[in-house]
Specification:
Layout lengths: L10 H16 L12 H28 L3 H32 L9 H9 L13 H7 L8 H19 L2 H7 L4 H24 L21 H18 L4 H11 L2 H7 L5 H16 L8 H18 L5 H16 L2 H16 L17 H23 L1 H6 L1 H24 L3 E2 L4 E2 L10 H37 L11 H16 L1 H18 L7 H4 L3 H34 L8 H10 L1 H13 L4 E3 L6 E3 L23 H21 L14 E6 L2 E11 L2 E8 L6 H18 L19 E18 L7 H29 L17 E2 L9 H6 L4 E2 L9 H9 L25 H6 L9 H9 L22 H8 L5 H4 L31 H4 L8 H11 L11 H20 L11 H8 L7 H7 L2 H12 L8 H6 L7 H16 L10 H14 E3 L5 H9 L3 E8 L4 E19 L1 H16 L19 H6 L10 E2 L3 E4 L8 H7 L1
Parallel strand pairs: 11-12
Antiparallel strand pairs: 1-2, 3-4, 5-6, 5-13, 6-7, 7-14, 7-15, 8-13, 9-10, 12-13
Family: Belongs to the pecanex family.
Keywords: Membrane, Transmembrane, Transmembrane helix
InterPro entries: Pecanex, Pecanex_C
Length: 1275
C-alpha cells in the first residue's frame, strides 16, 4: 500500500483527539461530549474549575483591601479548599451507603433508557437530574484508591494556599516594578494555570495527559503530577524570600508559570512517577558514580545504600580516612551488593514469618560464585592497599609533577589501547566503515573461524586485564594521591565527600567510561601545563569536581551525537526512501532546513535533560519527550505478560545462553565501548536463523551485568519480513561472504542504518530443518513395513512400562486365559481349602511353558504381501517347541509369580479346564494339558477360555462366546475394571496375529531383564502384550480405515494417526476412555527422558498416547527411507531396532509441533524433536526436525536514540491518541530505522513480543557460575 494512502490518524480518532485536547489543556473538564447532555453537566464542571480561584480571590481582596495578613489568608484558603475536596468525596460514601440500604433506588434510569444506553456507540450516559447520582458520578468520579482521598485534599489545600501567596498583587508588583498591566495579566493567567492543576484534585479524576508513563494507574498518582510541577515553581518563590539574589530567577519563573497549561499539553513535563525515578537514576549515576538499575526496588535500595555511605563520608575530617573509606566502599557499591541485601532481608523475613520464602527473593541477581566472592575480597584488599600506599606517600607524589604527568600520559595510552582492543574483536572498524582484517572471513569453515576467534579472544583477555584490574588500580592510586590537596581542602565537607565517593566508585562501576573520562581529564591537564593556556573557571574546580563534570559532559556528548544522527536519518530517509515518501515529505525536509536552529535547540534540550526525541507519527517533525528512566518502560522487566505462543519456548531455551555469551563479550570488550556506560546502556539485536532477540542492558557493574531479553514473532508479517530481511542482508554482508579479502570489504550500510553488526557467536540452541515428506510417508514398501513396526513399538513401550513398574514394585498385569493367541500354560494347582491366607501369600507359584508357538518371519510376511497376499490372509506357521529357561528371582517373571497377592487357580477351575482340553493331550499332575492341534480352533478356544470374565466368574462361565474381554483376577494379575472390556473379538484379531513377532517380544524382555539373561515364555505378560498390541492395531488401522482394509492405509491416515486425528470408530472411544492405559503408555514414554518430572508435559500428552507407537513407527520409517535402508528393513537386527527405540525414548521428543509437550521439551532442552504436519493449502506433508547444537547467532548494536524515539511516539499514539490501527503509518516497515521491529519490541501492552524475560543477571568475569548467594540461602 502506498504510504500516502496509509493514514496518520483515522477520522474517528481525529474527532476523539479533538475532544481530548480541551480536557488536557484545562485539567480534565469534559466540555465536548460526543452526545447530547443537559446544560447543568457543563455548568457543574465549570463551577468546580473556578471554586479554588473564587475562594482565593476573596482572601486576596481581604488582604489587599482589608489588611488581612498574608499568612492567615494563605492558611484559610488552603483549609477551605482542602475541606471542600474532602467533602466532595465524602458525598460518594454517603450515596453508596444509601444505595446499599435502599435497593429500589439503585438504578434511576427507565428500562428504555437502559436499553438505549446499552446500544449507544459512544458510552452514552443518560442524566435524569442535576442532583442525580449519575450526574454526580460523572462530574466527580469516585476515587479508586480510597486512602488517596486524604492525600488529594492535602495537596489541594497546599496548592491553593501557596497559590494565594504566589499570585498576590503586592508580591507581583514587587517583582515587576509596580506595573499594573503586568500584575493583572500575570494574576489572571497564573490562576488559570493553578486551576488546571487544581481540577484533577477537586473532582478526583485524571485528565488525559500527553505525558503518560503508566498505561494503568491503580493508585491515581497521575492526578498529582500537575500539582507537583506547580510546587517546583512555589519552591523557587520560597527560596527567593530568604535569598534575595534569586529575585530575577523568580520573576522569570513567574512568566514561565503562565505557560504551564501549554507545557502540559505539549507533554514536556514528566508525570510524577517518571520524574521521581528519573531523578533518582541521574543522582545515582552522576552524583554517586553508579549505574542505572534493572528494577525500581533495586534503584531505591542502591540510592539508600549509596546515600548512607555519602552521609558517613560527610562527617570524616581526615584525608587518609576519607580516601581509604571511599576507596573501599566505592568498590563494594560497584558490585552487586543490592542482591546481597535482598537475600539477607528475605532470609530475616522468612525467619520471622512463614509468609516469606527465602528461596523466592525478588530483584535478585545471584551472580556471585564462591570463587567470585574470593576474587572480590582479594580485589578489595588490593584496592585498600593501593589507596593506603598512595595516601602514605601523598606528599612526595604530589610534589613531583613528573609522576603526575606520567600517570596522565599512561591514562591516554590505556584508553587508546583499550579502544583498539575492542575494535579488533568486531567485524567493522573506523566508524563501521571498513571490515576488520583480523576478523574471520566467514564462519562456513568452522575450524578456521574457531582458530581466528581464539586469536581475537587473546585480545579480549588483554582487554579484560586492563579494564578490570590494571586501569582501575592505577586510577585508584592517582585519585588517592591527587584528588585532595591537604593544604586547601576543608573537611568535613558534604561536597568533598560527594566528589570522592563519585570518583572512587566510578572507576570500578564503569571502568570503560572512567578510563575515557580520565583520558580526557589528563589531556586537559596536560594542556593546562602550558603557561599560555588558561581556563579560569575550570581551574577553580577541584580535581574531583572536574571528573564529575566530565562524566556528565561525556555522557551527554555521546547522547548528543546519537540524537543528531537519529534526526538526520529520519529526515533524509523520509524523502530518499521511495517507499517512505509521502506528499508532505519534501515540505517537511524543507521546514527542517529552514528552522534548523529550532531543530538543534530541540536536540540540545533533549540531550541536556536525558529525554528521548519525539518524532510525531515518526515523521521528521521533532519534539522533546518527557524524561524517563534508562530502561524506558514503567513495569519491572518481564512483569507485563507477553503474547505467548508455541514459539515462545525457543526463546525461553536460548535466552540464558545468549545472555551468557553477551556477558562474555562484555568483559572481553567485544560489546563494550568507551564512554557508553553512563545513563545510556547498550541495546542489542541478535539474529539466529529465523529468531530475533531484542536485548537491553539494564544494569552493569563490576563483575556483573543485567539483561532484558524479548523475542519477536517468528510468523513474520510483510513489514516484519522486510526489516528482518534487511537485518539478514547486513549480517550476511558482514559475516557470510568469504569470497573477497576482508581488508578490501566495506560496510554496505555505513551511516543511514540504526544497526551495527558486531560479532558472530555460537550459542546452545536448535537447528531447524523443515522437509517435505513426498516419497517418504507414501513410499509403498515403507508403509507395508510400518504395520509390523507399529506392533513392535507397542510391545516395546509396554515392556518398558512394566520394567518401570517393577522398579517401583507396583505391578498389576491382567491374566489372559487360553485363547487363540496363546499356548496353554503349566500352572501349579493348589487347594485353597488346605491353606490359610498367610500361607497363600507366601506360597510361590511356578509357571512353565512346555512349548511355544513361532510365527512366520517378517521376510515371509513381506514376500507374501508382495505376491498379492493381504495382511488379513496371512496364516501362522508352527515351529518345534523348545524348553523355556526358568526366570531368575530378580526377573520380572519371578516378581509376577512371587507377588504378595499371588493368584491361584482352584481345583474346581482346574477340573473344568481339564475337561475342556483335548483328549490326546498329556496330563501331568497338577497341570493344565497342552494341545497344538486345536491351537487356532477359535470356537473351542473361545468357549474354553472364559474370555472376558473375571477369574471368579470363569468358574461359572457358560459356553457362550462373550467376545474380546480380558479377565479380572482376584489374584496379583489384574487391571482396573475397564481394562477387561476390549471391544474387539478374537475372530477380528486372528487375521493379524502374524504381526506379533514372538522373537521380538523375547528379545525385548530379555534385554530389559538383566538378571534372567533371556526373555519370558508364553506367560501372562506375553498374552497381555499380544492382546493389547493387536487390539490397538485393529482399532486404529482396521476399524478406522474405510472398508476395514489395512492395505488402504496411506499417507493421509498415517498423518491423522500421528496428529491424533484418527477417524472415529467404536473401539477408538474405548481406547480414549481408558485412563489407566493412557497412563501406562505415558509412563513408558517418559521413563527415559530428562523431563520425566514435568507433570504439565504428562497432562499435555494424555491424548498423544493413542498415536505414540505410531509416531515412533513413523519416525523409524522416516529414518529408514532417508538412509536408504527401507528395502532391507525385514533383515534388520533386533538390536538395531532396540537401539533406535531407546534413542527415541531418551533423546527425542516425537510429537505435535505447537503442543504443550513440544513447548516443554524445547524449554527443557531436549536434544532432538520431530513433528509431522500437513499443509492443506499446498496439499503437502512435511516434517520438522529440531536438533540441539551450537547455533550461529549474529549480534548487532542498535541506536539508542532511534529506539527511544520510536517508543516515545508509540507511547503517545497508543496511550493518548489511542491510534491502534494495525495499518497506521508509524508501524509500517522502515528498513533503515527498523520501525516495525522496534514497535514489536516495546513492552506489552503497547508492543507484542512473544517472549519477555525477567532481568537476567550474568557475571562479567571469567569465573565459575555456581551461585554463592544460593549456597548461602541454603545454609
Amino acid at each position: 500500500m502506498p504510504v500516502d494512502n496509509v493514514p496518520l490518524l483515522n477520522e474517528y480518532k481525529q474527532e476523539f483527539v479533538a475532544k481530548r485536547i480541551p480536557q488536557t489543556l484545562l485539567g480534565g473538564p469534559n466540555l465536548k461530549l460526543g452526545y447530547s447532555a443537559p446544560f447543568y453537566v457543563y455548568v457543574a464542571q465549570i463551577a468546580l474549575w473556578f471554586v479554588p480561584w473564587v475562594i482565593s480571590g476573596i482572601f486576596t481582596v481581604s488582604t489587599e483591601v482589608g489588611g488581612l495578613s498574608i499568612l492567615l489568608g494563605s492558611i484559610l484558603t488552603g483549609v477551605l479548599v482542602g475541606v471542600f475536596v474532602l467533602t466532595l468525596q465524602i458525598v460518594h460514601v454517603v450515596r453508596s451507603f444509601k444505595k446499599s440500604s435502599n435497593p429500589d433506588r439503585r438504578n434511576e434510569l427507565t428500562s428504555s433508557q437502559q436499553f438505549r444506553q446499552l446500544l449507544a456507540d459512544d458510552d452514552e450516559i443518560f442524566f435524569t437530574s442535576c442532583c442525580s447520582s449519575t450526574t454526580y458520578n460523572f462530574v466527580i468520579p469516585k476515587l479508586r484508591f480510597t486512602p488517596g482521598v486524604i492525600l488529594r485534599a492535602l495537596f489541594a489545600g497546599v496548592l491553593s494556599g501557596l497559590g494565594y501567596w504566589y499570585t498576590l498583587p503586592s508580591v507581583l508588583n514587587a517583582l515587576y516594578g509596580s506595573s499594573v498591566a503586568a500584575t493583572v495579566i500575570i494574576y489572571i493567567f497564573s490562576w488559570v494555570a493553578i486551576s488546571c492543576a487544581q481540577y484533577p484534585l477537586n473532582v478526583g479524576g485524571i485528565p488525559p495527559e500527553v505525558a503518560t508513563f503508566h498505561s494503568v494507574d491503580p493508585y491515581d498518582i497521575a492526578s498529582l503530577s500537575r500539582a507537583t510541577h506547580v510546587f517546583v515553581f512555589y519552591a523557587f518563590h520560597v527560596v527567593q524570600v530568604y535569598i534575595t539574589s534569586y529575585s530575577t530567577v523568580n520573576a522569570v519563573l513567574h512568566i514561565l508559570f503562565l505557560f504551564l497549561p501549554l507545557l502540559w499539553l505539549s507533554g514536556l513535563f514528566p508525570p510524577i512517577d517518571s520524574l521521581f525515578l528519573w531523578s533518582l537514576e541521574q543522582l545515582l549515576v552522576f552524583a554517586l558514580g553508579g549505574s542505572p538499575m534493572a528494577t525500581d526496588a533495586r534503584l531505591l535500595t542502591n540510592v539508600i545504600l549509596s546515600g548512607s555511605v555519602l552521609i558517613a563520608v560527610s562527617f570524616i575530617s581526615s584525608i587518609p580516612a576519607l580516601v581509604l573509606f571511599s576507596a573501599c566502599f566505592g568498590f563494594l557499591l560497584s558490585t552487586d551488593v543490592v542482591s546481597v541485601v535482598f537475600v539477607l532481608l528475605f532470609k530475616f523475613l522468612s525467619f520471622c514469618s512463614s509468609k516469606f520464602n527465602e528461596s523466592d527473593v525478588p530483584h535478585y541477581g545471584g551472580s556471585f560464585s564462591l570463587v567470585a566472592v574470593g576474587w572480590h575480597i582479594v580485589t578489595l584488599a588490593i584496592t585498600a592497599l593501593v589507596a593506603a600506599l598512595a595516601v602514605n606517600y601523598q606528599t612526595q607524589i604530589a610534589s613531583n609533577s613528573q609522576i603526575k604527568i606520567a600517570f596522565e600520559i599512561l591514562f591516554i595510552i590505556l584508553a587508546v589501547l583499550c579502544k583498539l582492543l575492542q575494535d579488533f574483536q568486531r567485524v567493522y572498524v573506523c566508524f563501521r566503515l571498513f571490515r576488520n582484517c583480523f576478523y574471520p572471513n566467514g564462519f562456513a569453515n568452522t575450524t578456521g573461524f574457531a582458530k581466528r576467534k581464539k586469536i581475537l579472544d587473546g585480545f579480549g583477555y588483554l582487554h579484560l586485564s586492563l579494564t578490570s584490574m590494571l586501569a582501575p588500580l592505577l586510577m585508584v592510586f592517582y585519585l588517592s594521591s591527587h584528588l585532595h590537596d591537604s593544604g586547601t581542602v576543608i573537611l568535613p565537607s558534604f561536597v568533598n565527600g560527594l566528589i570522592t565517593i563519585h570518583a572512587f566508585r566510578m572507576v570500578w562501576q564503569r571502568s570503560n567510561s572512567a578510563l575515557l573520562i580520565f583520558a580526557v581529564f589528563s589531556t586537559i591537564e596536560l594542556i593546562l601545563t602550558s603557561p599560555t593556556v588558561a581556563l579560569g573557571w575550570y581551574e577553580t574546580i577541584s580535581p574531583g569536581g572536574r571528573l564529575l563534570l566530565l562524566d556528565i559532559c561525556i555522557d551527554r556528548s555521546f547522547r548528543l551525537l546519537d540524537n543528531m544522527w537519529f534526526v538526520f536519518v529520519t529526515t533524509i530517509t523520509s524523502y530518499a526512501d521511495k517507499k517512505q515518501r509521502r506528499k508532505s515529505s519534501a515540505g517537511l525536509v524543507a521546514l527542517n532546513i529552514l528552522f534548523l536552529p529550532l531543530v538543534i535547540t530541540v536536540i540540545v534540550v533533549a540531550t541536556a535533560i536525558s529525554a528521548p526525541i519525539f518524532p510525531i507519527f515518526t515523521l521528521p517533525l521533532f519534539y522533546v519527550a518527557f524524561p524517563r528512566p534508562s530502561r524506558f518502560w514503567p513495569q519491572t522487566p518481564g512483569e507485563a505478560p507477553a503474547s505467548v505462543c508455541s514459539d515462545t519456548a525457543y526463546y525461553l531455551q536460548m535466552a540464558p545462553n545468549l545472555c551468557r555469551a553477551l556477558s562474555r563479550g562484555t568483559y572481553l570488550g567485544t560489546y563494550s565501548s568507551l564512554g557508553a556506560q553512563g545513563s545510556d546502556l547498550s541495546s542489542f539485536l541478535a539474529r539466529s536463523q529465523d529468531k530475533t532477540f531484542w536485548v537491553q542492558t539494564l544494569e552493569q557493574g563490576y563483575g556483573y551485568a543485567s539483561f532484558y531479553v524479548k523475542g519477536l514473532e517468528l510468523q513474520e508479517t510483510s513489514c516484519h519480513a522486510l526489516e528482518a530481511t534487511r537485518v539478514d542482508d547486513a549480517c550476511e554482508a558482514a559475516f557470510e561472504k568469504p569470497g573477497q579479502a576482508s581488508c578490501l570489504r566495506t560496510n554496505p550500510y555505513p551511516f543511514l542504518y540504526s544497526l551495527t553488526p558486531l560479532d558472530t557467536i555460537s550459542i546452545d540452541g536448535y537447528s531447524d530443518a523443515k522437509n517435505s515428506l513426498s516419497g517418504i510417508i507414501d513410499y509403498p514398501i515403507a508403509v507395508k513395513q510400518f504395520h509390523s513396526d507399529y506392533v513392535k513399538c507397542v510391545v516395546w513401550l509396554l515392556a518398558h512400562f512394566l520394567r518401570k513398574k517393577r522398579q517401583r514394585e507396583t505391578i498389576d498385569i491382567p491374566v489372559i486365559p487360553s485363547g487363540p493367541f496363546e499356548r496353554k500354560k503349566a500352572v501349579i494347582i493348589t487347594q485353597p481349602s488346605s491353606m490359610g491366607p498367610e500361607a497363600i501369600k507366601k506360597e510361590p507359584v511356578d509357571v512353565r511353558a512346555k512349548s511355544e508357538l513361532s510365527f512366520e518371519s517378517l521376510e515371509d510376511v513381506l514376500s507374501s504381501q508382495e505376491n498379492g497376499v493381504k495382511l488379513n490372509s496371512l496364516k501362522p506357521s508352527r515351529r518345534s517347541a523348545r524348553p523355556a529357561p526358568s526366570p531368575s528371582l530378580g526377573s520380572l517373571a519371578s516378581i509376577l509369580t512371587n507377588n504378595e497377592e499371588t493368584a491361584f487357580v482352584s481345583s474346581k477351575a482346574a477340573k473344568e479346564r481339564k475337561s475342556c482340553s483335548s483328549a490326546k493331550s498329556t496330563n501331568l499332575p497338577g497341570t493344565v494339558p497342552d494341545s497344538d492341534d486345536d491351537l487356532w480352533d477359535l470356537d473351542s478356544e473361545l468357549s474354553d477360555s472364559g474370555f472376558g470374565l473375571s477369574s471368579a466368574d470363569a468358574r461359572k462361565k457358560t459356553t457362550n462366546d462373550v467376545g474380546g474381554k480380558l479377565p479380572q483376577s482376584n489374584g496379583h494379575l489384574n487391571f482396573s475394571t475397564g481394562w477387561g472390556e476390549i471391544p474387539v473379538s478374537d475372530r477380528d484379531l486372528e487375521p493379524y496375529k502374524q504381526l506379533f513377532d514372538k522373537s521380538w517380544y523375547l528379545h525385548v524382555t530379555s534385554s530389559i531383564d538383566d538378571k534372567s539373561g533371556a526373555g519370558w515364555e508364553e506367560d501372562e505378560l506375553m498374552m497381555t502384550c499380544r492382546k493389547l498390541a493387536l487390539a490397538s492395531y485393529y482399532i486404529i488401522f482396521v476399524q478406522s480405515v474405510p472398508g476395514r482394509d489395512p492395505d488402504l492405509v496411506g499417507a493421509s491416515h498415517l498423518c491423522k494417526v500421528y496428529l491424533d486425528n484418527i477417524p472415529w470408530s467404536p473401539g477408538l472411544d474405548w481406547l480414549r476412555q481408558r485412563p489407566d492405559l493412557h497412563q501406562l503408555v505415558v509412563e513408558a514414554h517418559r521413563s527415559g527422558t530428562s523431563y520425566v518430572g514435568s507433570s504439565s508435559l504428562r497432562v499435555s500428552c494424555r491424548f498423544d498416547v493413542i498415536s505414540l507407537p505410531s509416531r515412533y513407527a513413523i519416525k523409524m520409517m522416516y529414518d529408514r527411507v532417508v538412509m536408504g535402508t527401507v528395502e532391507s528393513a525385514g533383515e534388520e537386527a533386533y538390536d538395531e531396532m532396540v537401539t533406535s527405540l531407546q534413542e527415541y525414548d531418551s533423546d527425542w521428543f516425537i510429537g505435535v509441533e505447537g503442543s504443550r509437550g513440544w513447548e516443554v521439551a524445547v524449554s527443557k532442552g531436549v536434544s532432538s524433536l520431530f513433528s509431522l504436519s500437513y499443509d492443506s493449502n499446498k496439499g503437502e506433508y512435511s516434517s520438522r526436525m529440531l536438533l540441539r547444537r551450537k547455533v550461529e547467532t549474529h549480534v548487532t548494536r542498535l541506536s539508542s536514540a532511534a529506539v527511544r524515539g520510536i517508543w516515545s511516539n508509540l507511547s503517545w499514539e497508543l496511550l493518548y491518541a489511542t491510534n491502534d490501527d494495525e495499518e497506521r503509518y508509524s508501524i509500517q516497515a522502515q528498513k533503515d530505522l527498523l520501525r516495525n521491529l522496534t514497535t514489536q519490541a516495546a513492552d506489552p501492552p503497547l508492543g507484542y513480543p512473544i517472549y519477555s524475560s525477567p532481568p537476567i543477571y550474568e557475571s562479567t568475569l571469567p569465573l565459575p557460575r555456581p551461585s554463592f548467594l544460593e549456597f548461602f540461602q541454603k545454609k
